[in-house]
Fold this protein.
Amino acid sequence: MAKTIMVVDDEEDIRSSVKTVLEKNGFSVITAINGDDCLKQLKTKKPDLVLMDIMMPGTPVRDVVPQIKGKVIYLSVVRVSEAERIDLLKSKNVVDFIQKPFDINELVKRVKKATA
Amino acid sequence: MNIESELSQNRAVLLLLPSLEYNDIIVDVAKKLSKESLCYVTLNKTQSSLREMFQKKKVNVKNIVFVDAITKSIKNTPDQTDGCYFVSSPNALTEISMVVSKISRHNFKYLIFDSVSNLLPYENKTTIIKFLSSTISRLTEGNTRCVFYALREQEQEQLIKECSMFVNKVIEVK
């Protein structure tokens, strides 16, 4: 059965392009427009992985991510220092950190690794 | 572009930056302006990442006080540490205004606002324009010279046009 990925991003372009790419690679994709929408949908949906933009309007991700039970990969247009990146990866459910703009093949590779 | 010379003739300038050279340009400008006291408002990088980047390029970070609108969204952070004020997010315009007001009393020679473009996902153009206009008036009354960055992109043309009414000069960096 196809693994399900939830793409959480306030930018419509990113949501739709990542959705298209992941679906072409055999994943089932659902989307959310921000952290609040993500948490609302997670009450009824159980994705195998959440791809979460780190900076969105609404509840900050530092409060959203601890409420997610499954694995999370951060997608970040925001630049963080190396120490901060390491710190973010210490959260028990955060498995990767991908800097935007990202290479599509690299994204797919890391999503496959996280859901293997 | 000689930013120091531009700022000796203009109280507030808007720099339109190409996205590919963005990081190189902001380092170059920070290096020049950090010879004097500089306040750096960041809406797209954490202060820690800016410090890391600036230190690698030998920018004098000791002369810089940061206003960081990013870090609080991603981790628990105090309101203030040595050399940095943290505000809750890039759309916390009231908080940013309050910090800028506080800072303006310290008579910084320069202020860099990085960037106007990062306000767009959060606020409508009218709110952004009102915010920028009041910020510029407050800072320039106190004699601080301001640099506002914006990405040179077609979809931001209207915002740039409106911003240009509040600054003394718009410089397209090539």
Q: What stands out?
A: Chain B has one domain: 10-172. Chain B has seven helices and eight strands. Chain B touches chain A through 22 residues (CB under 8 Å).
